[in-house]
Amino acid sequence: MIVTAGISLFLLTCFSYQIALANEPKRVMLLHSFGQDFKPWSEYGTTIRSELRRQSPWPLDIIDHPLVSARSAGDDTDAPFVEYLRTLFAKRPLDLIISVGAPAAAFVQRHRHQLFTNTPMILTAVDERRVGLSSLTANDAVVPVRIDYFSAIKNILQVLPDTDHVTIVVGTSPIEAFWKEAIAKEIAPLESRVEFSWTNELSFEQLLKKAASLPPRSAIFWELMIVDAAGVVHEGGAPLAKLHAAANAPIFSYDESFFGREIVGGPMLLVKDTSRETAAVAVRILGGERAGDIKTTPIQFSTPRFDWRELSRWGISEARLPPGSEIYFREPTVWEKYRWQIITVVLVFLLQAALITGLLYEHRRRRNAEVEARRRMAELAHMNRHATAGELSASIAHELNQPLGAILNNTEIAELLLGSASPPNLDEIREILAEIKRDDQRASEVIKRLRSLLTKAEAQAEEIDLNDTVREVFGFLSAQAASRNVALNSIFPAQVVRVIGDRIQLQQVILNLVVNGIDAMAETTARERRIVSRTVLVNGVAEVSIADCGPGIPSDELPHLFKPFFTTKEDGMGMGLSIARTIVEAHGGKISAGNQIDGGAIFRISLPVAKEH
Question: Per DSSP, what are the bridge partners of residue 28?
């Protein structure tokens, strides 16, 4: 019984130990070429990490380490880093090492005998030409790629057949020096057609100057720019972005990690292809397979892909692209982008057009009826005035006879005075002439009143106080403004400002501007919300300004602000300001809009001042 119990305890302990091992995370180190922010390997590192977590059935402890020593040549810089890694993982060995990129692959192969000989290793995102096959051990697996530089340059000549000069961007680090020589050999057959230049002897600033002044029919091929001739290290996407901003020629490359902003396109290595294959191999190794037994085919260029924005920028015809090319970032047409909105708007307009047509028809009938009614009423009024004039003919004749009779009498007296023997009294003659003039004016006034009675007179606009007009509008809107936390302030001059016009129409204009200002400040929280009205007199012109504290009016919208159907509101019809301008101009004035220096929009209405009596 004691022996049986001991065996059971031993088995239980072993089983518990196996469970503990199964639940312990697999320790994986990603060794990055140069660092985690150096393209293209940074993109591969990020995607491999994601794929590992997606494919692995076990929990993973992924550790990242940059290979800083790859920026310079020589093994003397490797030793401290090798010793650091050995010390760091001496007590807790790694389950797998993944080197990302050719510099990392070269490093681990140089020091394989020092770096955990029994630890499985994967060399990935590395061209097969950069792998020392003779140095591989039974614990090493490779996920290689194949970069076809000849095809990449041929792609440039296909999409830009007039190209006669290609600048190949490459730096001075050991890997860049390797690829300069490799690329030169591979594209040598094209030298009879194209002139090639290199940038490995230029600082990055010199490179930018050169790229800005390339001759016509030039292209740029981006390989790498890790370390320039001045010894400056460049990481991330900044170098390529700066080159794109300065270059006067299109830029091409072969790796997807550079695609999406600065690169025209072409056949490319896809990051996801290499990352997915690397993660699959890693899972097999972590599951117990021997790394040296896993063989993978080199990953080659995928279907060509192009950036529509760069094609448009450089005038590259889609007809010149390789068959089956994929075009990315194409801007949709207005119809593609707003199809349902356009259909909805068209239907609404058709419905509105039908309603408006019916309303116009009814309006025309009503207007014709009103015109006919006014015409008949005017005729009746005119006839009535003629009848009145007939009834008053005796009085009119009497009013005319009095001044005419007085004129006749004064004329006869003047003749008698002039015909007398003695010299005429000139003062009496002047008095008689003054009376004749006065009586003539009395007769003229009678005739004018008669003519006014018998003719039609047009209605005249009234003289109004512009200050009172503004006050009434602000008083009307005070409750609405208070509910939306908007203060209404008015500034008036000491004197009364009078204009000729329709009070209701001018109030409509001011009301429209104030409501627009309140709406513009709906989202304003940074400062006090207020609308300020100011009335001033300048050189015989009355001006009313309405200013708010909103975001202001974009400069590109100012020229269109008063056009019919132009609106900055989501639910606006675009008619308010157009009607306001019509009303103001009908009053002989002007309306304008602008932005204040300290923020907010300001509208100004100018009207001619009423003449003083």
Answer: 62, 96
Cα–Cα distance list, 90 to 64, 77, 116, 187, 465 (Å): 17, 21, 9, 46, 94
> Distance between CA 432 and CA 416 in Å, rounded?
12
Tokens of 355: 């309603």
Helices and strands in the chain, H and E counts: 17, 19
Give the C-alpha separation, 155 to 303, whole Å.
12
- Among residues 554, 548, 559, which one has the least CA distance to residue 600? 548
pLDDT of 283 higher than 90: yes
Which has the minimum average pLDDT: 118-132, 269-283, 431-445, 506-520? Answer: 431-445
**What letter would DSSP give residue 479?**
H
The pLDDT value given to residue 449: 46
Starting from the edge strand earliest in sequence, which strands make up the sheet with 26-33, in order? 60-67, 26-33, 96-100, 121-127, 140-145
The sign of the torsion formed by the CA atoms of 54, 55, 56, 60 equals: negative
Count of beta carbons in the 10 Å neighbourhood of residue 588: 12
C-alpha distances out from residue 316 to 166, 407, 523, 560, Å: 17, 99, 45, 35
Structure tokens at 309: 């924005």
CB 235 within 8 A of CB 35: yes
* Contact (Cβ atoms closer than 8 angstroms) between residue 282 and residue 122: yes
Asked whether the predicted pLDDT for residue 271 surpasses 70, the reply is yes
Q: What is the CA radius of gyration of the chain?
A: 47
Strand-pairing partners, residue 465, are 498
Q: What is the DSSP string of 19-48?
A: HHHHHSPEEEEEEEES-TTSTTHHHHHHHH
Alpha-carbon distances of 13 from 7, 19, 20, 166, 258, rounded to whole Å: 10, 10, 10, 69, 53
Cα(first)–Cα(last) distance of the chain, in Å?
132
Cβ atoms of 41 and 101 within 8 Å: the answer is yes
User: Which two tokens mark 572?
Assistant: 């606006």
Cα separation, 203 vs 201, in Å, equals 7
Say if pTM beats, i.e. exceeds, 0.85.
no
Task: Give which of 206, 203, 196 is closest to 168, Cα–Cα.
Answer: 196
Q: How far is residue 397 CA from its own chain's centroid?
A: 81
Q: Which residues on neighbouring strands pair with residue 61, listed in sequence order? A: 27
Which residues make Cβ contacts (< 8 Å) with residue 400, sequence separation at least 6?
443, 446, 447
Domains along the chain with CATH numbers: 2-145 (3.40.50.2300), 149-268+301-328 (3.40.50.2300), 362-454 (1.20.120), 462-608 (3.30.565.10)
> What is the Cα–Cα distance from 255 to 271, expressed in whole angstroms?
8
Amino acid letter for position 607: L
Contact 198, 170 (CB under 8 A): yes
Q: Which residues pair with 498 in a beta bridge?
A: 465
Strands 601-608 and 541-547: antiparallel
- Which amino acid is it at 193? R
Helix, strand, coil percentages (3-state) for the chain, rounded to 5, are: 50, 15, 35
Structure tokens at 124: 């990935």
